[in-house]
């Protein structure tokens, strides 16, 4: 979902400068445009078309992105990492559920569209995933974003559970895979995003299956 990541109670980073915020906004706007074009027309979209539709010069496009496929990364990154920020926020509360339950709840929320923009983002993601078989570079961006997300999740789970490093890596890999597979499986079909076969239901099922044998998720919250 194209919403800004939330900061956790444990660490609040310095507010970005105005220039940095404008740069991030421009990147995200180009990313939305690229995602919409890839979803609509597939891998034949060009960088020039993305730039022109986004209302920026081609030179500006290449100042931000190396390739046309890289242009979708900011949108995907916000979507796949939002639930990690949500997880960190949820488990920081006094009434926080156990880590295992918090993981599933955060994943459900991340993949449940709550407004028109969230529904649109899921439609774009479906279109992107359907375009990927014809564009290996686009698929590489998808996997790179999930790899980065998994590394961030490891840090959060290590703090939450105090588990052995191997258990933390396995838990992060399982949870991240559940998210990725749920979206991919949903995108391959025609089910509604908010229905019984939507990504939120699929991720809950996958999360339970893949984390069932990981006792480290029953550890403490720090």
From TrEMBL:
The keyword Lipid biosynthesis does not apply. SUPFAM superfamilies: Homeodomain-like. Residues 24-83 form the HTH tetR-type domain. It comes from the Bacteria. Gene3D superfamilies: Tetracycline Repressor, domain 2. Pfam families: TetR_N. PROSITE patterns: HTH_TETR_1 (PS01081), HTH_TETR_2 (PS50977). Residues 1-22 are annotated as: Disordered. Residues 46-65 bind DNA. Keywords: DNA-binding, Transcription, Transcription regulation. The keyword Disulfide bond does not apply. Residues 1-16 have a biased composition (Low complexity). This is TetR family transcriptional regulator. It comes from Streptomyces lunalinharesii.
